[in-house]
Write a structure and sequence with these properties.
With about 650 residues, this protein is of the alpha/beta class. The strands form four sheets. Strands 12-19-17-18-16-13-14-15 form an eight-stranded mixed sheet, sandwiched between helices. Helix 1 links the parallel strand 1 and strand 2. Helix 21 packs across helix 23 and helix 26 crosses helix 27.
Length: about 650
């Protein structure tokens, strides 16, 4: 029966930028093997490249206003063929762009469904719900998901089918579109006696929305469709229902031939980066033993690029480089000729360094960021390297030594922890060409970054994003960033950043600001440059640091949760959002009494920071002030 089925596909599409991504092209190409004709309705204009890409894949491209969501394109397609009055088709399909696929061959789907006796069918369905979530009362009926519905000839040519569509139209919101078509279509026609079938038995999963909530199990059951929305939907929904998108992605990797790069190239254009990284769990806890021990090492051209201001850390840096398997190029920048010679001499002692490139910066302003974007610009605009590890000699002298040391270890030990660990990082880049950057997870132990990591840098980052013409959406509170200025990157992922002709005068002179500088903004912008180039950012963490970070995160969350009425995360967020909107007013507490401990801690930290900053930037003045203090207090030395 499948070999002689005559089908038409009405494909409804929308993209804010008019781009038709590879996943759509692949979907249409595979669909074309099972249909005679594809009508491609675009709700809005298409780019020239998109129109060219569609040539030969579809039989007609129809541009229409972005009105009516999927309903009106389906209606217009049905009217175009006059509801198949001439009896040309056995099936007409109404399909949209909201799923990746076919994850498994359409042959499986059409072969199974050709044996089902029915009048219309779909791939997945939504279960009955009481009360109706849209109205708060009554019952939402069982219905096929409208992203893929197929109608057979008897129902297609019926007066009832034509009458149904003639009633639909007008200005539709998302809610009215769902309530006027998707949630009523199935029940309307089954009540008229037409028989409905669903490819997957969606009653067995136990949730009301298996295509979303049980996305992993539907893929285990070889659903040809992987819904896009879980990649960019509010993570609170996924957390509440325990939606296991990472498992679904893993099942695709292990059991399907689907090219996952099509997913990442598309979803990076439409997601907030932190939402994507959260929902898809783009964080790797890597061991110190190479995972792919039986495979040859990653065949990548690797460089270690370091800004070496503190040459007393040179041996530590080179030891990190020794974890890189095979040969690599050592690129360094510094601010004096004397340091350049010392760096070259030390680097020559390491046999795994293929080439040594040490350059003296023209000006000592902008530190590690300017030296990368100006002094090393030519190296990364050329096609020299596949991946680069960016380090600098971080001491953070204005902070207490425990905090500074913890920050440095968070950078070094999550980027180049051991030979096995670094091999795993390179294998990750080799096996996943869509990964453009690898960064340590956000530093949060002893730092108030969670929920506040933009600090005073968001407005400036937005200005730079406009200059670079980045088409991305910033995360509202906590960017996925290269905090600390150390990371792995593909030069191709940061092309826009290197193409821009930065000037030394763009960067602030010494003494360097502790926040709000161009360098601080760029740290937070790097991953969004990669996202604009359609690359993902993977967070990487060593197993021992994963343990301590998780333990502290768990403590922080349970401590905050214990101060709230119950443990429901969504309810907690609601309470805190309301408190924020109210200006953080605390009942029965005078302003002067609020958070005295936090204030005293802040003053103490500020005092330490000022002392260390002064000792670092003006050591002679610091010694004079310390001597004056001793003479005034009568203390001849620091110890009694």
């Amino acid at each position: 029966m499948e070999s002689i089925m005559r089908r038409l596909c009405i494909f409804s599409f929308y993209d804010a930028d008019g781009i038709v991504d590879d996943y759509v092209i692949y979907f249409l190409r595979e669909m074309g093997r099972h249909v005679e004709r594809i009508l491609f309705y675009s709700n809005g204009p298409l780019t020239r490249d998109a129109e060219v890409a569609l040539q030969g894949l579809v039989h007609e491209v129809i541009l229409r206003p972005n009105e009516g969501f999927d309903i009106l394109p389906y209606k217009e397609g049905l009217e175009l063929i006059d509801f198949d009055r001439d009896g040309h088709y056995d099936e007409v399909m109404m399909v949209n762009h909201t799923c990746y696929g076919p994850i498994f061959p359409f042959d499986e789907l059409f072969s199974v469904m050709s044996q089902r006796k029915c009048d219309f069918w779909g791939v997945t369905a939504h279960m009955e719900m009481t009360p109706n979530p849209f109205t708060g009362k009554g019952t939402l009926p069982y219905h096929l998901n409208s992203n893929f519905i197929v109608v057979r000839k008897d129902m297609l040519r019926s007066k009832s089918f034509r009458a149904y569509w003639e009633k639909l139209g007008g200005s539709l919101t998302y809610e009215t579109a769902v309530q006027s078509h998707e949630t009523v279509f199935t029940q309307h026609f089954t009540k008229l006696g037409y028989v409905c079938e669903c490819y997957l038995d969606c009653t067995k999963y136990g949730s009301h929305y298996p295509a979303f909530i049980d996305i992993d199990e539907t893929i285990v059951d070889r659903s040809p469709l992987l819904k896009r929305r879980p990649f960019f939907h509010d993570p609170r929904f996924l957390e509440h229902y325990s939606v296991d998108l990472p498992r679904a992605i893993d099942v695709v990797e292990r059991t399907s031939d689907y090219d996952r790069s099509m997913i990442w190239k598309n979803i990076t254009r439409s997601s907030e980066l932190r939402t994507l990284n959260t929902n898809a769990a783009l964080t790797s806890v890597l061991p110190d033993v190479r995972i792919k021990q039986d495979a040859p090492p990653a065949g990548l051209r690797v460089a270690l690029c370091v800004h070496l201001f503190y040459t007393d850390m040179l041996d530590e840096i080179l030891a990190l480089g020794d974890t890189i398997p095979g040969q690599y190029d050592f690129i360094a920048t510094t601010e004096t000729e004397e340091k350049r010679q010392a760096i070259e001499s030390a680097a020559r002692q390491h046999n795994n360094i293929a080439h040594i490139i040490v350059r003296v910066v023209e000006q000592n302003r902008g530190r590690d960021m300017s030296s990368l974007l100006i002094t090393c610009r030519d190296l990364f605009l050329e096609d020299r390297y596949d991946v680069v590890c960016r380090l600098h000699t971080k001491k953070t002298p204005h902070l207490a030594s425990s905090r500074a040391g913890g920050f440095k270890r968070h950078m070094f030990e999550n980027l180049l922890n051991s030979p096995g660990y670094t091999a795993n990082v390179l294998d990750m880049f080799q096996d996943n060409p869509w990964i453009g950057m690898a960064v340590p997870p956000i530093i949060h132990i002893s730092y108030g970054t969670l929920g506040h990591a933009w600090y005073d840098n968001k407005a400036r980052a937005q200005d730079i994003a406009q200059q670079l013409k980045l088409n991305v959406r910033f995360d509202p509170d906590t960017p996925v960033g290269a905090f600390g200025g150390m990371y792995w990157f593909r030069p191709k992922a940061l092309t826009k950043l290197f193409e821009h002709r930065w000037k030394w005068t763009d960067f602030e002179p010494e003494p360097y600001p502790l926040d709000g500088s161009l360098g601080h903004a760029l740290e937070r912008l790097l991953t969004y440059v990669a996202q604009d180039a359609q690359y993902t950012t993977q967070q990487i963490i060593s197993s021992h640091l994963a343990a301590s970070n998780y333990a502290m995160l768990e403590y922080k969350l349970q401590r905050l949760s214990a101060a709230l009425p119950n443990g429901d995360f969504n309810y907690q967020v609601h309470i805190l959002d309301e408190w924020k909107r109210a200006g953080y007013r605390a009942a029965n507490m005078p302003d002067s009494a609020r958070q005295p401990l936090s204030l005293s801690l802040a003053i103490g930290e500020l005092t330490i920071a000022l002392k260390r900053s002064l000792a670092h930037r003006a050591p002679r003045l610091a010694r004079m002030l310390q001597s004056l203090k001793r003479s005034l207090t009568g203390n001849p030395s620091r110890t009694q």
